[in-house]
What we know:
Blueprint: H1 2-21, H2 24-43, H3 49-65, H4 70-88, H5 107-111, E1 112-114, E2 119-120, H6 122-125, E3 131-135, E4 141-144, H7 146-151, H8 156-159, H9 165-168, H10 170-185, E5 190-198, E6 201-213, E7 219-229, H11 232-237
Antiparallel strand pairs: 1-2, 3-4, 3-7, 5-6, 6-7
Helix pairs in contact: 1-2, 3-4
Amino acid sequence: MKDIIGLFWFKYSQLQLAVRSGDEVLTSILDREIDPILREIYEAKAGNVADARLQFQLLIDLLQKEADDMSCVLRHSTILKALVDRYFSDVAADDESARWLPMSQSAAAVFKGRADEGFLNEAILDCLPDRIAVITPDYRYLYTNPVNADRLELRPIDLVGRHIVEFVGIQRFEQRVKPNLDKCFAGEAVDYTFSKEMKGRTIVVRCRMNPCRSGTGKLIGAIIVLQEIADRRRAIAA
C-alpha cells in the first residue's frame, strides 16, 4: 500500500507542476495516469489496520489539498463514506465488491491510534460524514465527532465525560439505548433502526454499535455510528 500511495503522490506533484506551468498536454496525460492509480488504492482490500489507515489518510490529505474545488471535495467525501460503510457492514448496499472487513472486527481497530494509551485517531473520525461517538462502559462520552456534537448543539469537548442519559432521556435510555450498549459491551455488534420526530418530520436513524477495544484487547467502550436514512413510509405514501 505504501508503494502505490507513494507513486500516486509522485504523479500528483508532477500534475500540480504541469498545471502551474500551463502545460495542457502534460496535464492531460498525467490526469489520465493518476485516475487508475487512485482507483486501485480505493478498491484495494486492506489486509491489516496499517493499510486501512493509509487509505483514510490519503483521502484526508486530498480533502485538505483540494478544499477549494467543490467537485473534488464531493468526490472524495463520497469515497470516504464508501470506505466507512465497508468497515461497518459485511457488504455495502448492492455492492458485492465492497466486502472488506467482517462486522465482528472492532471498528476501533481501524480508527484507533493506540487506544491502550487512551486516544483514538480523531483526525480520521473528525472527517467522517456520519454522527460518531465512543461511549464508555459507564455510559459517558469518551469522544464525539463534530457532526454529532453539532446535532446536539454543543462543541465536542462539551460532551466528553457527560452521561448519555442527558441527551436521550431516561425512558429511551432504559428501554433502548442501555440494553443495546450492554450487548455491545458484552462483545456483540449491534445494528438497529429507530424513528423520531424532528421539526415536524419523521427521521429514520440507523444505529450501529461495535465494541471498542484497546491494543491489548481491553474493552474501553462502544463506538457508535448514527446515520439518517430515507423514511420509506413517507415515500410510499407520497
